[in-house]
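W.,

You were right to be curious about this one. When I first looked at the sequence I had no strong expectations either way, so I just let the prediction run and decided to look at it fresh. Below is the sequence, 461 residues in total, followed by the output.
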Amino acid sequence: MHPLLTELSHIFPPERLLTQPAQLKAYESDALTAFKAKAAGVVIPHNREEVIAAVRLCHQHGVPFVARGSGTSLSGGSLPIEDGIVIALNRMNRILRLDPDERIAVVEPGVINLAVSQAAAPFGLYYAPDPSSQAICTIGGNVAFNSGGAHCLKYGMTSNHVLGMTVVLPDGEVVEMGGESLEGVGPDVGGFFVGSEGLFGVAVEITLRLLPIPQLYRTVLAAYDSLQAAGDAVSAVVASGLLPGAMEIMDKLAIKAAEVGAKAGYPQDAAALLIVELEGESVAVEAEFAHLLQIMDGTGATEVRIAQNADERARIWKGRKSAFSAVGRLAPDYIVQDGVVPRSKLGEALAAIGALSRKYSIDVANVFHAGDGNLHPLILFDGREEGALEKAEELAGEILELCIALGGSITGEHGVGVEKRAYLPHLFSPVDMQQMERMRRTVDGKELGNRGKMLVVEGAG
């Protein structure tokens, strides 16, 4: 047994120190199952002291580690480091404090995203970031990847809702970032940490901003005979000055998947669906809603449905949020991409993705946050066929290059992880890359925190 595992066994009982092949199997991949790696061991801490002890021992022995929540990462971001340690945080799932007067919640990293809103609901509050996996993803994972969700157009990403954190740096030092105030003082160190994909340590306590639950929602589902028409409708809504809580588009293949998986009742003959949701104070929303309907009337929609109650609204969103998993009913395997393009380039990007789909003879289902140009093409393939994965990855790479060429980014919320690491230098200049590497070395000279993800620093380790 590795000396590190021996020392960890003095802290963690056998049921919380996993070293057997069958035990490690469940941790060898995240939601991007095309990538796999075997850890030397998995520790399951119950509290921050155990996390601190584990990180300090890893630093002492020079063994890399990765913190993991529910493993819903779609970029290989929570993939184990070969022969490293996985720090599984799911059992650190307590909401430590919920202050309705200050509108904050202090949580451990293993708390499920949706659980925060459920706990805050009796006080008329909720947690705004709502990734599609919000029923299972953890706040710690959301922090690592700066998750967004359907409503990020109006409310922003995780970074806009994290006020403070207690973080264990890769050498075991414990630091405080931010606090409980909306008004930060000094450099935004917390903003630097959010989205760093575990390269700078492990957040063991996170202070979140809560918002009042909107008085009223108005949700509209519009069907179009082309993706271009749906994209033009988004442009029309934005140009009107309205700021919806969410604007989402699904193409024909995604509609089919969602209907099979969630039975959402979507129009099956539509080439594209647009979901627009307004939310806020009742008087303002009703006025905006009348304006929205006028705009929609001029967009050439073949059908417009208005959710008449909470159940109908939930059904519309269930279809959209289950689209990723439902695509699994259409193909044995798929890759979810996460590129971003300027809103003005949406139509061009979708047309190009369609051309790439035909070039490679691979089906691509498109689901995306239309309001901020965050594309989620789902590339369908059968991994049992020789060369199918490589062909799908080549197509995925062309989509990322397309996003860069159009003035966008290789990721909106899924992170760089392992999958998109090679494309980071295509997005950033050599000077930018050198600066990021310098910051990495300064915080973690041994490159122990999630080694090999996002950045690869030459000569580290």
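Here's what jumped out at me. The chain has four domains: 3-88, 102-212, 216-325, 331-422. And, maybe more interesting for your project: The CA atoms of residues 88 and 419 lie 21 Å apart.

Coffee later to discuss?

I.
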